[in-house]
Specification:
Blueprint (H helix, E strand, L loop, with lengths): L10 E5 L17 H11 L3 E4 L4 H5 L8 E5 L1 E3 L12 E3 L3 H7 L4 E8 L4 H21 L3 E7 L3 H4 L8 H14 L3 E2 L11 H6 L15 H13 L4 E4 L1 H4 L4 H14 L3 H8 L3
Parallel strand pairs: 1-2, 1-9, 2-3, 3-6, 6-7, 7-8
Antiparallel strand pairs: 4-5
Helix pairs in contact: 1-10, 3-4, 8-10, 10-11
Protein name: Aldolase
InterPro entries: Aldolase_TIM, DeoC/FbaB/LacD_aldolase, DeoC/FbaB_aldolase, FbaB-like
Organism: Paenibacillus hemerocallicola
């Protein structure tokens, strides 16, 4: 955990594991993974989230001063605009051993709640239950991603349900299952996000960024989430799909670690 979080107890994890999910819209900005990872490494976030097949691109960079690795351990097929007839969230084999061999500081796994998909939810619960004792055995922090989704047939692919009444119990369940870190979506009313933090029972909460948003919108959202008690963020597309992913990374870092205002973060983003 000390390799993942700064001395202030905060963390910015840049998610670059999107290619794991067989969804073409996720590949924008990461067509060249080596270049994408090197760009983010130079911007110096706390961590980078990667799949097993791409993690060596980070860990092969010489020297000690580079972001910690967060290893994605499950691959799902829920991200397209049309859901397939069979949904899955499949855990990789020997996930924690793979994480240890890759020198990861943390593993991450989904806890998905989609409307009328109890089998998928059950599989995710089983995945967390399998991971937890392995993580304890190896001393590996477990990040659980409790995600509540809207119906695909009415809202398209992979759209977040920001209903606090659904997010809070799923976050609490993730903690009860053994999560060391919670990666959860923002709720509809950001001023109520402290209730999500409270549901995490002292475990650090890192809100997820979701789809690409306008610069000032995502910076304002981040500032408000930090004011509500979040311990950092896990953002992917709002960094890697940005015209200046390095400057955007630094802008988010100033909010997470320095308490910068939106105006100050925008100045960093503009290179001022």
């Amino acid at each position: 955990m000390n390799r993942l979080f700064g001395e202030d107890g905060k963390c910015f994890d840049v998610a670059i594991d999107h290619g794991f999910f067989n969804e073409v819209s996720f590949l924008s900005g990461i067509e060249n993974m080596k270049q994408a990872i090197e760009t983010i490494v130079a911007a110096d976030p706390d961590a980078i989230q990667l799949s097993p097949g791409q993690a060596t691109l980070l860990q092969s960079i010489p020297g000690k001063k580079k972001p910690s690795l967060v290893l994605r351990t499950d691959v799902a097929n829920i991200y397209g605009k049309t859901l397939p007839s069979h949904l899955f969230s499949h855990l990789i084999h020997n996930p924690v051993e793979q994480a240890v061999s890759l020198d990861a500081a943390c593993v991450v796994v989904n806890l998905l709640l989609l409307p009328n998909q109890p089998e998928l939810y059950h599989q995710c619960v089983e995945n967390v239950c399998r991971l937890k004792p392995e993580c304890e055995r190896y001393g590996m922090p477990l990040m659980v991603e409790p995600l509540v989704m809207l119906p695909n047939e009415t809202h398209g692919g992979y759209m977040v349900d920001g209903d606090l009444g659904k997010i809070v119990p799923l976050v609490r369940q993730a903690v009860e299952l053994g999560a060391d870190i919670i990666k959860a979506d923002p709720c509809d009313h950001l001023e109520e996000y402290h209730k999500v933090v409270e549901a995490a029972s002292g475990k650090p909460v890192l809100p997820r960024g979701g789809g690409r948003a306008p610069d000032e919108t995502i910076l304002s959202r981040t500032y408000e989430l930090m004011q509500q008690g979040a311990s950092g963020i896990v953002y992917g597309r709002n960094v890697i799909q940005h015209a200046h992913p390095d400057r955007m990374t630094r802008a988010f870092m100033t909010i997470v670690h320095d308490g910068a205002t939106v105006v100050q973060a925008m100045a960093v983003l503009k290179g001022e």
